[in-house]
Fold these 3 entries.
Entry 1:
Amino acid sequence: MKNLSISRLAFAAPVFAWLLLPSGVAAQQSKPWEKIPVPPLHEFKPQQPKRVALKNGIVLFLQEDHELPFVSGSVLIPGGSRDEAAAKAGLVDLYGQSWRTSGTAKMTGDAMDDFLEAKAAHIETGGDEDSTAVSWDSLKADTDQVYALAMDLLFHPKFSPEKLQLAQQQTATGIVRRNDDEGEIASREAAKLVYGADSPYAREPELATIGAVSVADLQAWHEKTIGGKLIVSMIGDFDSTSMEAKLRSTFEALPTAKPPAPRHETFNGPKPGIYFINKEDVNQSNIQIVGLGVDRHNPDVPSLAVMNDVLGGGFASRLFQKVRTELGLAYAVGGGLSFAWDHPAPFRVVAMTKSESTVDASKAALAEIQGLSTKPFTEVELKRAKDNLLNSFLFRYDTKGKVLAERVRLEFYGYPADYLETYKLALEKVTIADLNSVVKKYVHPEKMAVLVVGNGPEIKPGLDELKMGPVQTVDITIPQPGAPTGAQKPGPAEKQ
Amino acid sequence: MQSKLSHRLWTLTMAVLAVTLSLPVAMAQDVKSFEQRITTKVLPNGLTLIICERPEAPVFSYSTFVDAGDVNDPSGQSGLAHMFEHLAFKGTSEIGTTDYAAEKVALAKVEAANNAYEAENLKAIGRDPKKVAELKKALQDAETEAHQYVIPNQFTEVADRNGAHDLNASTGLDQTMYFWSMPENRLELWAWLESSRLSDVVPREFYKERDVVLEERRMRTDSNPIGRLFEQFLATAYVAHNYGRSGVGWPSEVSQVSATEAMAFHKKYYTGSNIVVSVVGDVKASEAIPLLEKYFSKIPAGPKPEEMTTVEPKQFAEKSVVIKDRSQPIYIEGYHRASYRDPDDAVYDAISDILSNGRVSRLYRTLVRDQQIAAVAEGVSPYPGDKYPSLFVFFAAPVPGHTSAEIATSIHKEIDKLKTTDVTDAELAMYKTRARADLLRGLANNQGLANALAQYQTRYGDWRELFGQLDRVDKVTKADIRRVANQVFVASNRTTGQLDTEAPAASAKKDGSAQ
């Protein structure tokens, strides 16, 4: 079934439309929904997983869940694509793909596929920006066999040249196709504007960099990271005591986990201005307004979350009300200032609009960002945003799986286990003064960049109407291996 | 029909069975215990309520399943069901308005102004541009007049403020679904909101919302190479049935549908007998049923709309569509197959599973792993819908340096293998094991379960078929697979769709001219 629906790409907020109503409008006569009783919520203490810190630094989490006869687990390993060499960008992705498909000395990846799928079980590996992982799941009856196999893969992978080559080919396909989809171009290039094209948080694997990765590189990466502070988590239909004993027997005897190398990173944000990428097979522009956000350690995060809800958090947000509902200029519009766990995430507002209304939609979205400092927040707005955030807060821990995932995340990034509770309390206390203060501190339209991906000839009026300086064209030509840097040799992979 | 089995007993049963019994038997037992947690009630207006008690956390999810989608759009009004879905977020006579009595009058003027404008604007002969401009201005004035009574997005605002999570809706060709999750203490508030928007629809901000839907079309179809390909592919594969028509709507049609047409669609299809509402989570059926009955009874009764009678005629010649585009190549081919009610429905699922499910699948192993000609290769069904006879579709993306022609050859070899040689015992057993496990895994998700219960209740008249389908899965034989493959995968029943890369015209300015 296809999903032709109202998008929640938007994130932001509300009440502003009230101010847009012509003055003198009669107040709503009755609000029947306010007469409907809302009884106290059933008492609920989310079940926390058992945490076991081993002497070597490895941490285990055990979360029993007996509803269904399944058991699943994961081992999270610090170190990810931001730590790979620029000349081998893509290494961690290739590692994540070919680790599992290669298999072990005891069982090849192909044999593992047959063995597991016959049991409707899975073992998978993957690489991310800051970590890699082995995860598995099976019916309860197969717990021991699947666990043993997952551990064999975790500790004794045998990387195969054939599987690396297969992964390289898959990744190459992604690279040559990366300019086909407008939205993909827009979010990728917007990240480059925020972090810099060469930043580990934005750079892209290229045909040359993935081609430079060898089996020895995969093995070296594995040896380098497997000794880190592993976080092992299990959830499902098991008994914690015996499961803990099983995990201990695997992980307790390992050497002391190596601490991660300290990170020295600077984040300057985008070079302000207007940027353009031409794509003549579309009739809609993808507009990205970007700046630099913060990381979650920042004590202003609760206030920023409320600000985000007002700006772009949902149907009632200022952006949605203005750009979509009032102007009818976009289906997808929204955004805000994001926070990553250990580095600044971008500020990003996105709108997609037909070519001809590119300038109008950009102006309308920019005005709402600017409006954060010029259109005063109201008590109604504040209350609405807090209601939105607090009344749905429950959905952060309404399953045992979510509770476990949150605890693993907090452990991985070094946050206290009660982070969610303190965060919720802080949200409750946010005031209008707090909102004004964070807008002043973090929302700087003059430091933002606007990126438009769209059909140049159709964009009329042109982007110079935005008065953001000369329109800077971004070259997204896909470099061909062997071609000198910057060369723009037309090839089969080149797409504009 | 009230469910009394405690949750504890349910989990205990599950745990014990999983250890001591083989999976097929365990499933049968599961169904029994599951049945006791589910209560249904058909209201006097024909609407079916389904409640499933799953008190894991103090939340619930719901799904409203309307047995009407874009396949039901009247001729010339493609995209109407989806347009209506957007209208269902605009509020009612009580929510989203400052003064409904006055707004109603103003909206009637909008409609009259729109009719006058459209009549002039669409004149084939004697269209007067000056008059068109005047009428357009009059329409805009009428909209401004009506807008003064609107409290924009108040319906969703109330839902959001009360903790609605993953609030959304989707319009398919076959059905329209509305859904979200909420804290359990908002059950009555939800019942008021949902029953109100289903029964008391106001054509508020319709023409502005139509612009929004046109942006949605640009995003999903016009500006997306794969979206463009699939739209043309379906239009080629079907000659009579509405599955061949753009679901989001052809631009000239969806840009001209009117509020009057949307309201007529609502009147015909949003009747009690055409709607199933399911709720899964921390709710007690004994309390919820009377509460929900109170609210959902206000949905008008009215007969079950007549089923569409158009049947796609048998295809007798291979068809193809080729798009020259600036994107990388994509290859698809589709074969007409029977509907979900056909006794062979599970056989199609078996074929799809064996061909496409994971790294053990035949298409992965052949086209991706061994021949290394495709980055992805799958054969799935039903597409584009499940209610009426649809297509079994193969989809593949060639890796650089390889072509759609090579892909087609390899897919046809795999198809021939299915026709001439039995699948292995292991493959068939794997399909059956995975089908069961996947069903079981799905039970742990309130929203997924609510959607599935409502869908099976609608499609089979009984949600128990969600579990009953496993009987059909069990009965699939190797001979069935060969028989169906021989019957369906023949050239005269095939439509291919292909996106071929075309270099940009040499004259195109490299940086465009957006300045």
Note: Residues 1-26, 485-496 of chain A have pLDDT under 50 and may be disordered.
Entry 2:
Amino acid sequence: MHLRLAGATLRRTNVLDVARPAGRLIALGLAVSAVTGVLLFAGRASEIAANGIFQTKMSLIVIAVAWQLVVQRRLTQTVRSAETTRALGVIGLALWLGLAVTACAFILLE
Amino acid sequence: MTLLEVCEWLETTAIAIAIQESLYGFAIVVAVHILGVAASVGMLLWVDLRLLGVALMQRPLNEVYRSLAPWFAAGFGITLLSGAALFTAFATAAYGNPFFRIKLLLLLLAAVNALVFHRFAAASPKTPDDAAAPPTAARLAGLFSLAIWAGVIVMGRMMSYTMFSPG
């Protein structure tokens, strides 16, 4: 979805035609991740909660989800410049990539 | 030279040793591998969704495929290279690991599926006529692809839990 916003792929497809299914998939993915994440966390809660990388990951999740909601609202507005759309895509990509890297760091180094 | 002997030799190569001996080296290569999966399977997912008739039905299959192909191709390249590097570091353990063997089989299936599909996608019409419900063959191809890649990922995760001894 973010690559489409940034104009990097699926250029002939309408932005909303990508954003709509993507939004649903992201919501589904987040739900599954949240449930399984809580299960993984529960086993060693206090130890994990004190971990700096984990705290970074949680902060990024909050920011990324909030950003996702901002983007979805923005996309339904009829007037939207190409630059704004591209910026939404690039920032979104950076957030999710940062989150993925942080999550990897947590799994692999802790 | 037996396969096992080749694996033993691979573990002595410079790249293998670099990964074995450095915690950060290992973590970085694994992280690249995982992100490569996101870049490859994550992009291919949209082709599969198009095949299933679940998303992007507004555009022809051919166009969706061509647009996403460079991305998932690059993703697969990164995943393959990082995977090869990881293999060299733990070749003998991987060799004996049943999950790895299943993973390899599934990867082979995925490659065959991709080749068969590439012919199919390249031949499909460019007009939006196929915006109607996709044929059964297309749906099966999409489902098959999703199932295989889900299997590969699960096998990969199972490997990480069964290949390394604690401590």
Note: Residues 2-109 of chain A form one domain.
Entry 3:
Amino acid sequence: MSARLPRLGVIATAAGAFAGLFGVGGGTIMVPLLVLWFGYSQREATATSLAAIAVIGSLGAAAQAAYGNVDVWHALLVAVPGMAGVLAGTAVQQRLSERAVAVAFIVLLLGSAAVLIL
Amino acid sequence: MTALDWIGLLALGFAGGMTGGLLGVGGAILFVPALVVFADESQLGAEASSLLAIVLVSVVGTWRQRVYGNVRLGDGLVIGLLSPLGVLAGVALANAVSERALELSFAAVQLYFAGQLARKVVFRRNARSASFQRSGDPPNPDRGP
């Protein structure tokens, strides 16, 4: 347990750096590290990544709001269908095998890497 | 906004949320272009507004995953609260290394993760994985108290 906090700190730093540099993608760092390093199941890793993203997003949104850059109406334009989508996504995930979720995540990682390389 | 704009926002918003629920990512990769293309927002404004959308979507997703019993809230909160360290590290990196080198480095990290996940989760063939597939509940040696 003593080594747990520093390891969580490393994951947080990597995810924050990735999100800070590229604007997106903290989840693509957090989920694999939680699976490979902490032995999380794929479902637990994606769920815990969402909880971390809620905090990371709140900090970022608060900072951007302080500069007057956040448009609440525009946020709701994608957030309302997004909330319906996340309910559908979590429901679908519970019906998939761990292996299927992992394969989908690997496809996401390959796509994200391709976008960075090209 | 035209009907096409509304359809685009609805479709990309839903797809972003779906990706978040399925794969545990925020959805910004779809929210930001949706706001730029269909709501005529600037890139900076879209990134800022999408952060608020991400918060709303990830809170709903976390609540739902908690109902399913998948969230380890303590670890998630610790990672979230420590993430500003990473933002600072990212700023330092961006000033020290070329953008192209950073892109290629992160791509390499993602390809490495893809390979490791494939090896660990997709292709393992041993007694533990066989029992895990039967029960649908993976072995988790590092599970804390």
Note: Chain B touches chain A through 103 residues (CB under 8 Å).
